[in-house]
Amino acid sequence: MTNRLDRDFTLTGLLRFALPTIVMMLVTSLYTIVDGILISRLVGANALAAANVAYPAISVTLAMGIMLGTGGSAVVAHKMGAGRMEEARRDFGFLALTAVCIGLCICLLGALGAERLARLLGASDLLLADTATYLRVQLCFAPMAMLQLLFESFFVTAGRPGLGLCLAVAAGVTNGVLDALYMGPLQMGILGAAVATVTGYCIPAVVGVLFFLLRRQGLRFGRPNGDVRMLGQACFNGSSEMVTNLSAAVTTFLFNAIMMEYLGEAGVSAITIVLYAQFLLIALYLGFSMGVAPVFSFNRGAERYDRMRRVFGYCVRFILLSSLGILLLALALSGTIVGVFSPAGTPVYAIALDGFRRFSPAFLFAGVNIFASALFTALGDGRTSAVISFARTFGFLMLGLLLLPRLLEVTGVWLAVPLAELLSCLLSLVLLRRRRADFGF
């Protein structure tokens, strides 16, 4: 059986290989955003704010799943490239078992402490009930979310990105249909949004388990080997992605607190809209970086540095051109994007539209940062990857959030992310140049 990673890619071939993962990330982003749109339209702006208040806790689950998926797939793909397939299978089995165990611990927390956690996240009396309900349902299905995120990376490593795409589309369509049903005719409120989302998690999780259990050739579940050292390496490799999501939890909490102070619940709803839009527009970079990462990991394991240099050049061209295109798209369609969430003429719409236009320059630099971090993860340099992610999503961003609002008030909140992306882009370029010889670029 020929491994799809073991070939010489052209630019067109590389884009074709990464396309299912790109579309998968876009679909995943869309069905997350559909929640926001329908919550806002069918339940109200306060319910949308409650979902965003709950997000920091949910993002911890995302952080763990993405860490195991991206970091673990780099380890497994490297061993596949070196011809150690049976060892790669056993590592994969252990990573999946670890993901389920972590998910069960998070599930217990959600079942027993949703209300207390909602208070800790800053839910006001007005938002408390909806925040606790959303948290409880989401966290109780954490094992399914963990497996979905793990399999998103490993479908690519197994050479089946198309299957990951199909499952992401199925999950997204299911989520959207159930959102409309539960929050519309059945009048379930934010509970309906949470139930629809976790139902979407279950589709790729269940199908992924069956696929990797029943598969005869290539990457499949092996008997878990209990290799704690490998698990540590996978977690270290994926630490940048974990840092990104944990930082998102902290910064979302800070965004909410600052906007609540300046503009109340309407401000929290507006920042939620902008962050949803950001999640959609950077999905291209996330999907492309995730899609090409196993190519770098495999060829490093096979010591094909000539292939790595060529693929790196293709990636740079794609990232630079797409960054400019996304910035222009965001500026041109800002009114349309915000209007999907909140009707024109409302206070939330006015706040979000002004903020999104000030926020948009961030898209010019985000692609470089996301790709650089994913590249270092794929090459086994988790430390450098984590430095970039930490600087981008926490260090520089916290600096902006703590300083700019003091000088510019609400305008400073909107400019904090573009500033963080710019400074992180400069850091990424320095690190790529410094480490290029180490990986044969």
Automatic annotation (TrEMBL):
KW Transmembrane helix (keyword) present: yes
Keywords for the protein's UniProt record, in alphabetical order: Cell membrane, Membrane, Transmembrane, Transmembrane helix, Transport
Transmembrane segments: 14-34, 54-80, 92-114, 134-151, 163-184, 190-214, 243-263, 275-298, 318-341, 361-379, 386-407, 413-432
Cell location: Cell membrane
InterPro entries, per database record: MATE_fam, MATE_MepA_subfamily, MdtK-like
Protein's membrane topology: Multi-pass membrane protein
Entry-linked PANTHER family: MULTIDRUG EXPORT PROTEIN MEPA, SPORULATION PROTEIN YKVU
Descriptive protein name: MATE family efflux transporter
UniProt source species: Flavonifractor hominis
